[in-house]
Amino acid sequence: MKRAYLLCAVASIALPGTLFAQTTPTAAVQDSTDSQSDDTASADAPSSGDIIVTGIRASLKSSAAIKRNASQIVDAVSAEDVGKFPDVNIADSLQRVTGVAIDRSGGEGQFITVRGLGPQFNTVLVNGRVMATDNPGREFSFDVLSPNMIQRTEIYKSTVPQLQEGGIGATVNIITAKPLDGKTGAHLTLSAGGMYDTLAKKTSPDFSGTASFANKDKTIGLVVAASYTKRYSAFDQFAIHGWLPGSQGLINGTPSSAGLTAGALINSPANIFTPRDSAFYHYDESRERLNVASTFQAKLSDRLLLTVDGLYSKFNVMSNGHYFGPFFTPRFIGLTANSNGTVNGFNRPGTQFLAANPALTDPALGDQRVTVSQNDNASTYGNRFSNSYQIGSNLKWSVADNLDLKFDASTTQAKNRTPGAFIVVGALAQSAPRFDLLPGVTMPIISNLGNVTDPSLMRAHYSSVGEGRVRDRGTEFHFDGDYRNQDEGPVKSILFGAAFNRRHKTQTNANNEDTVCTYCGYDIPVPANLLSPYTLNNYLPKISGSDKAPVNFLTFDPAAVLAYLSQPSVLALARQGRTAAEQAAVAAQQLALPGGPFGLRDRPGQLLDVVEKVWAGYINVGLGGPRWSGNVGFRVTDTSVVSSGFTQPILGIFVNPGDDNLNIPLGNPTAVSVRNHYRNFLPSANVRYDLTDRMLLRGAFSQTITRPTLTDLGVNNFYNGRVTAATSGGGNPTLRPFKSTNYDLSYEFYISDISYVSLAGFYKEFSDFLEQQTLPIQIGQYTFQDTRTRNGATGSVAGVEVGAQLTADRISSGFFGGFGIAGNYTYVSDTAKRAANTNSACGYNGLSPHSANGSLFYQKYGIQARASYNWRSSFLRSCLSDYGQPENRRAYGQLDFSASYDITPAFQVYVQGVNLTNSYIFDYSVLEERVKNIQNFGTRFNFGVRASF
Question: What distance in Å separates the CA atoms of residue 475 and residue 407, rounded to the nearest whole number?
Fold first, then answer.
């Protein structure tokens, strides 16, 4: 609490000369179709009533007006013109808001983090309603929506009772265009262009259009927006899939040793971390997106306004990867570690070593036997086919001059299908492959691999295929009342209402997990005509050590290899220590499976089926007096959840021949259903005080909740892993909501209708924090590390946000008057108290202590240009990642640029560049020397023409 008071005190006495904080109040949320009050929505409208904004300055002016006139703390990003959002991706625009950071997928913004709280802690609405998502949880994917249909996006950082609960970090409302808010008559805006990715070296199409009509009296109107893009992209990646903690099996010898006996098998010290593998990737992707949105409005009478809107999105991602790398399993030769316990050198045995030391492969050694190092080539694909829609209707009835009633109903659905495969064709290393992590060199050096491009050495190994499916369905009903007191007194208005939301999310998995090791052991040759050479070109050139990477290897079509391996004659080839007769019997069993050994078979134990029903009611009293205004009220919610699925007993745990993968057959499924129920009382209060006509102070208090993400509420379970790392996990249907008590204070100084500076402080105190915890569970002779979401952690986050938005037109009317700057900085600190079995030093996932954004823009003489640099400091991605170790991301920043020129008032050419700095993503485990993931998505350019009619 002392920290909260200190932050608020700093905010209250801050001078207006500090940088700009875009943390601000917006007008009270009205509902799904009227999220802004009429005064705020038209704050920057011309006298004709036209609220359509034009250009960078008009966008900033509109956003500043929303901020200034709001009754709570909110930020906004507004369209620069009809169908022209500031960026080609909604999340890319939001990252320039104070306290907002984004996560990218394929170089595009997908998820947002607000004030250090990740996507699962932020509620995203479309026109004031929850929209179904194609993700397994509640997290909203911004990459499914085209920005051309968006009029503005509002980020609420403090809450009011009429705003839907669920966002502890923030509530984001995406608002589509409405015809009666725009110009009268018929209008059409078209855009045609292309995209070019520097790594894919391909150009792809980008088309969009917006048509609108409103009659002269603005009693009826229609707007339709559509867009189509198909982007070809690529990325390079280096990965280590975890650092194994603890003692590892060693061989007391050298790569040239001979005649070693079982006495040479020893163990390393316990306090070391050993790399699981080293993987060198290249992925080629195509991203195809089709969006259609429409809104119809009609004034049925002077007192009745009907609004019907709909939105449809289809988003398909096709991703194909090529991979090479050695996989490291104990035992190791000559293993060394530095003072941090990070393993920095070893050899793995090859066939030549084991031929000279046959006693080390004696079957009597069991799991302690020495295995040969593998050089793996893999072909992989992971596709995402998603579609979603939302349809809603809203009736606003002005019962009297001081009373409005609104009725809103909507339905939404999202579907997702994610087929994928990971097929390994490799060779047992002849030599003894070497791993070196050298001082001052980022990428480990892999050497002594032997011949990795000889097709005659290649053998079939691991073959995994699968397909996940997600379906999210929702219905929502709202009743809202707005009473405005026309008498003198402190009570200015009373908002009241009720809501009901039903959401049903299912997730299924089908795969061949019981037959992935049909060919494990590198016994069966793969025909040379199915293999082809592959080269990683210009592979991660900014990373030291990449010049030593094994960039030449073999690749293949996974479908062709699976077709070959599915032949009965190949399945019958003796392997894995079996006789021909024994193998023939196994092959017959595998062929009898649905789809054969590589067919997709449903996994009932992994079914997720959750139905959530939420009833809510609220009252919010608007207050005011000379120089001050505010509101106080509460929201009451009643939540019931039913989680359904199946349990399956473990029949046994076996080690696959030729590998150390665990094979865990399951018994017949038994249906199970678990119910959960809870109520929440959520008070809130907001106050605004006008120090002068240009200076404001705002304060807010609230209690908020975030419900468990739907994925975590299942009764599903899974078991897998290896002899040295058995893992399990699944759902937890009795989770409670994560609770937060929030305090906010902000200061704003408005220099003009565009320029302002601000400072804000916030403090959030948590209980029942939801996060993944890993607990050991014993199953047979193996100890499984069981990871699933659990309640229990407590803690807090506190922060300061500063920012400024300034234009030069007040000091120059000429060329230099077209310039402006916008910038912000956010600092967040945190405390966490976890259960004894977890790492309290972790902090919270997604929380960057420091983040900053800066933009330089220009608008004059038909020229519009903006250069923006976005940066965030290192942050925790997962407290418990691979093998229970934390995973972090290094500080990241990138420069984006956009420019356009108005050839005529109705015809414009434009160009945009994303990631002009060619910045890389870099993930690591605890220490940066333990690299886990390096990705380069290259630079992307958008260009085209835009015409209005």
Answer: 14
Length of the chain: 949
- Alpha-helical (H) ranges within 70-111 are 90-94
In whole angstroms, what is the distance from residue 247 CA to residue 266 CA? 10
Cα distances (Å, whole numbers) of residue 773 to 38, 605, 883: 47, 21, 12
What one-character DSSP code corresponds to residue 75? E
| Model pLDDT for residues 37-64, shown as the tens digit of each residue | 333 333 333 433 343 336 888 888 888 8
Distance in angstroms (rounded) separating the CA atoms of residues 705 and 442: 42
Distance between CA atoms of residues 148 and 170, nearest Å: 23
Arithmetic mean of pLDDT over the chain = 88
- Three-state DSSP class for 430? coil
Q: What pairs with residue 333 in β-bridges? A: 251, 347
Token pair listed for 270: 């316990």
C-alpha distances out from residue 352 to 258, 373, 428, Å: 10, 11, 10
* pTM of the entire predicted model: 0.86
682 and 635 in contact (C-beta within 8 Å)? yes
Phi-psi region of 361 (alpha: psi -120 to 50; beta: other; left: phi over 0): alpha
Q: What residue has token string 């530095």?
A: 338
- Residue 883's SS3 state is helix
Residue 304, classed as helix, strand or coil, is strand
Closest CA to 278 of 932, 942, 826: 932
In 3D, which of 277, 297, 332 has the Cα closest to residue 181?
Answer: 297
Q: Which helix (H) or strand (E) holds 41?
A: helix 38-41
The answer for 8, left when phi > 0, alpha when psi is -120 to 50, beta otherwise, is alpha
Answer positive or negative: Cα dihedral of 791, 792, 798, 799.
Answer: negative
Mean pLDDT of 863-874: 93
Cα–Cα nearest to 234, from 537, 554, 551: 537
Question: Is there a contact between 282 and 234 (Cβ–Cβ < 8 Å)?
Answer: yes
Q: Give the distance from CA 390 to its chain's centroid.
A: 21
383-397: b or e for each residue (b if 16 or more CB lie within 10 Å)? bbbbbbbbbbbbbbe
As given in the structure block, the two tokens for residue 826 are 């956010």
Q: Is the pLDDT of residue 865 over 70?
A: yes
The 10 Å CB-count burial string (b at 16+, else e) for 181-196 is bbbbeebebebebbbb
- Sequence-distant (6+) residues with CB within 8 A of 418 are 382, 383, 384, 385, 467, 468, 469, 470
CA–CA gap between residue 586 and residue 493 (Å, rounded)? 76
Cα distance between residue 664 and residue 661, in whole Å: 10
Q: Around Cβ 25, how many Cβ atoms within 10 Å?
A: 27
Chain Cα centroid distance, residue 219: 41
**Are 406 and 480 within 8 A, CB to CB?**
yes
Q: Has residue 151 got a pLDDT over 90?
A: no
Show the DSSP H helices in 410-552 as ranges. none
Query: Among residues 804, 801, 806, which one has the least CA distance to residue 754?
Result: 806
- Cβ 422 vs Cβ 378: under 8 Å: yes
Q: Please give the structure tokens belonging to residue 43.
A: 């704050």
- Look at residue 789 in the predicted model and tell me its pLDDT: 79
> Would you give the distance in Å from CA 456 to the centre of its chain?
42
What is the C-alpha separation between 463 and 537, in angstroms, rounded? Answer: 27
d(CA 625, CA 630) in angstroms, rounded, equals 9
Q: What is the DSSP string of 353-399?
A: HHHH-GGGG-GGGGGGS----EEEEEEEEE-EEEEEEEEEEEEEEEE
Tokens of 336: 């060394």
- Strands 332-337 and 343-347, sheet pairing: antiparallel
Q: What does the radius of gyration of the chain's CA atoms come to, in whole angstroms? A: 30
Q: Across the strands, what pairs with 933?
A: 239, 923
